[in-house]
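INTERNAL AUDIT FORM
Audit reference: QA-55
Scope: verify that the stored structure record matches its stored sequence.
Auditor: D.O.
Record contents follow.
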Amino acid sequence: MPLIDNTHYNELPSLETAYTRRQAKHIDNLIQGPLRDVFIKYGAQKTFALYLQHRHHRLGRNDAIVKVHGTAHLMNEEDIVDIEAMGNKIIPATWMGKDMLAMEYAVAPTSYARHSFFLPQVATFNPLPATWLVTLTCVVLFPWDRANPAVIPPHFIAELDHVLTLSDCKGLFGIDTLAEDEWSELTVGNASVVVSSNGNEREEAYIPVAFAFDDRKPGFRVHGKCGKDHKHTSKPSRSGDV
């Protein structure tokens, strides 16, 4: 069974389209204000970053984007089966789309399991749409923090979506797993290569795409960047094999 519905992934915007929308004057205030507040309220800033939604590839029906040590690869079902047979798990890493579905995955050892349950409601908020009760009930353990499993509380997703909707920014931002270091992403061949960054990359050549928060400091910091020369395929039609 495919990890994702490829039509949802292929509907994500290109990096250029997403960046154009992100440049609206009010977006920085939105990130460092209401969106930051939601992350801090649920403690999500310790594990997740706000992510500018965009896609890197055009997926076929049995394809998925799977990250290996931070670098994203276009894989088919056979590739994924092989990786799991070697003693690994494929776990959600990035949530995007209008419904904040898991869209990109990562490889982790089998010692990092997934379980399904809800966290207690942190604060009173609007009820979750019924369709979300299935898609948001996962606890995800990530390889660099064995003792502290990463959890996405459903009400965190709901409140984040509420803020984005009120700000006319639904579909602009998603959620990404916080990496150990700031990173930059560039295209090499058919791969999206992710490397640690000290902030000295050419500013004009990269687009900020991941934004992290600190409950002890106001505002936000750029956690990840994508090279402007990233090449994205056009959206496929809904007919045929893709």
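Auditor finding: record pair retrieved intact. The chain has a mean pLDDT of 80.
Action required: none
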